[in-house]
Amino acid sequence: MSTFEPKIVAFCCNWCSYAGADLAGVSRYQYPASVRILRVMCSGRVDPVFIFDAFKHGADGVIVTGCHPGECHYVTGNQNAERRIEDTMKALDYLGLGAARLRLEWISASEGQRFADVMQEFTKEIKDLGPSPLKKRKTEAE
Questions:
Q1: Which residues are registered as beta bridge partners of 38?
Q2: Is position 118 within any domain?
Q3: How many domains does the chain have?
Q4: Residue 63, phi then psi, degrees to nearest 5
Q5: Cα–Cα distance, 61 to 131 (Å, whole number)
Q6: Average pLDDT over residues 88-99
Q7: What is the pLDDT of residue 1?
Q8: pTM (2 decimals)?
Q9: Phi/psi at 46 (nearest 5 deg)?
Q10: Distance of CA 64 to the CA centre of its chain
């Protein structure tokens, strides 16, 4: 049996959660190396197309992280993100990928330990789900 190590794409808000990821690194808080961080200016700027594209290119899970509600540098960006993620989760269920492969979290710049904990927890959840169904379909087609 092979050991499955999930590929996770993390879209992190520049102002809060990306700084939280930086703090996690500087503080040497451990989180899986399979998490690939993409900095975005605001979680509200993460278009569902970006999420679907991540899955298309081999991600097993996608997490979007941003400022806590009421602390967004773009006032309503994280509210927009919440609506988009809810809709995208419904679409993932409809398409057979499963909403559990997508997650939204609020992480501030001072929460380095929380960033590491969330990444560990999400990676474990994705590990329990197994590889993305898109990978299975691709393998079957070959």
A1: 11
A2: yes
A3: 1
A4: -125, 135
A5: 9
A6: 97
A7: 41
A8: 0.93
A9: -80, 105
A10: 4
